């Protein structure tokens, strides 16, 4: 594959930018350099190329300029011997489109890339500074092993050694011989610990009952002691609260006494406490402000009295604007009049020269020479039309001659086509209709497809019928066989699974019950071996004793007495033994009951097992009835269901294949009949048109003959129609040309008339014979209006300035007379300036007096505001002094301090009442006060001390009892029941599953590592010759001859890569310097690309500034190698160093350099 052009339409920073790599030049290296400054978009270009091939990512980082829904990158790619215009959009599906916007299958690019994915393309066919560093690290990690280096270089997988080491370490972490720290060893220790724990919790029921009784007794004693301790603590806390409240009650009584002594003090508003300091401050401040205001008023009055105003000068104020405007115009005229007079004289000279040019020197009224604008437009239009009218006349003559010659020539050639024979158009129409029906019906194509389908259907039918073995027969026989519906099969499978589960459960339960029965009998035998204590033996001895007693009562002799004594002693011994072994007796009774229950359960499980097996046999027999006799199967229902399901599936597939075969045969027959009918119609049409032997032609030849006849007939008709049309067109053209010539002659005559009429209205009609003279006069007349206007404007301005100066002199004289002022200066302008200065001085004095008067009014207003504020202050002051019956604020302050102290005492008393009420947990203070009044402090202290000692004793006793309860609970909880054993067993099963998973993982890692090592060995043996030679030569060039090449050295079961220096020395690959390792990896990668290109079509190789740290000689050699690579496949180098472009152009003159904007 080759990149012909890359279109960065809307991608990253690019908009409608293309990089055209051009066509490949045979025999020349296909080497390209894309140059751009930093941040110019080189990495963006590479990312766009990959996104074109593999799709724009879900979270692309190149949407900072163009939104996701507008991103687009395109290219022209060369592969498969053709050019492909493709584009990639930011879509989830159908993102690859062609130049018409139609979606393209992704398989198109996947096939051209040989199945190489995005990540594989990055690693195998691109290089950057980071991949060079990783390659150098890979050389160190592989310790120079040749197979790993060759594989990582050709595939770009620089981390292969690290992956193999990681896999080996993980396998050793799972299992290693004679190692106790692996995961499997830890799991084995966990199994041993669970086994020990299970053995430790197996306790008898009698022991469990004793432990439970001990725990209940200890718990009851602990609960009683705890209740007693809680009562003692509650009483002790009550006494403590009462004793703690006594000091607060004494303080409260003292505060009530102090507050009673201040009962006559009034209760002023609370805001007066904050108001009093403000009144003190305002009294001082207002006195100072009043004095300052009075002093300022006197000063302003004196200043106003001292200011004098010139009333005559102020009277000029109404005329100041007029005076300023007149003075400005006077000054402007004084400055501009000499220049304006000079310009007027110059303009008069220009006018004289123009009149001389117009051959009218000294004309008294130059304005009379001007022409109307409409007349000038008419003359100029006629001048411009003259050349067009003459050209039209000449062109019309030429075109008329040409048209007549063409018509004469075509008439001479027209007779040659009249003698040829032409097929009747009606016959051609019938042939075309028949051919259209035959060609448009796609019957031949459909017949070919159906015949292939028929062959395939027959092969599939034979295959499906062969799979029915050992059953044999045809389709009719197969249709007569039985089959089961899928739902019935699923129902039977559910029944079989249920029955099998019941059978398995009954058998497992029988095994468990048998084990339990054997264990119970063994424990009963153990009890019996220790002496007879069971109830039956005791009842028998009791009956024998009672019988001996009855005999003795009847006889009353020594023999019966001895017999009775013996029987009584036996009964007493058994009774004593039963009494001493009461716990064993209880267990024996329980074991007897368990034995009986187990026996009954075993019998019931056997009955249930027999019922389940009977159901299983019945189900298997029903299923057997649906299977062919030729099929041998197992007696198990599940196996028969599987056989029935397989038979039904194969039977259905075979019948479906037979039906498909029948349909294919019918379709082929129908298509053949329809195709033969259309072919016969076409052959008849050809024979009618004079074509012999059409009936014997095959369909393809028949269609070709029809096409040939149609083409010949249509060509002849088209030629005749074209000739007739051409003669008609030329005849019309001649008539049009004759009419054009007449119109041109009429136009030239009309122009002459209009020209004479237009010049007759001018003063230069004598120049009508020369267009150039008329055009020159018109051009000169065009400047006359501007000259006349400029002259008149200058004369008007000079007259206006002279009038302005005269008017200003009169205005100044009149203004002085109106104001009663004498002339202030001999010059008019100086008198005006002096008058303005005197007016400004008078106006300034009047303004100063007005400002001082305004200041006086402001200070008077402030003085009145101070008087109002002082009145408010005195009212507040009188309010406070009158309330306390005093005449000064100092006395008021004393009273307020006393009130503040009284309020403090009352607030403290209220706080103490709340504290006492809260401490005693009383509903109100009166209740708390009553309880404090009833208490005897000394007695309460003694009770509190005694209760403290009692609490300590009870606390110690509770601790001891709690220890007993905890110990009993621990012993009880240490006893394991069935659930504890089950939990332990579940943990053991989980550990076994973990061991199984780890074993599989260990085998997978070991097998994978061995397979990878073997693959590397095979790869090394396969590629060591050609790839080593290329890499050795490339390494020699890149290092500038410092290394003469590469060789290998055996090391146990692998080979180590060695660099041979120029002087014959050798150095291991992992012992080379970092820079040399980078160069070695680059040489291996270049050789790997050539190895890849030798086996399959190459793809573009892209390198991104890999020579940034290389010096110039090594850069030259690398570009020389890249040029050699470019003869195998396209090579693109991205850089922002211009000197590398110059080096590349020097080494490989055929290189193409593209610059990014």
TrEMBL record:
The keyword Transmembrane does not apply. Residues 1-203 form the YhaN AAA domain. InterPro entries: P-loop_NTPase (IPR027417), YhaN_AAA (IPR038734). It holds the Pfam family AAA_27. It comes from the Bacteria. Keywords: Coiled coil. Residues 177-242, 849-876, 902-957 form a coiled coil. The keyword Heme does not apply. Gene3D superfamilies: P-loop containing nucleotide triphosphate hydrolases. This is Uncharacterized protein YhaN. It comes from Rhizobium etli. The lineage of its organism: Bacteria, Pseudomonadati, Pseudomonadota, Alphaproteobacteria, Hyphomicrobiales.
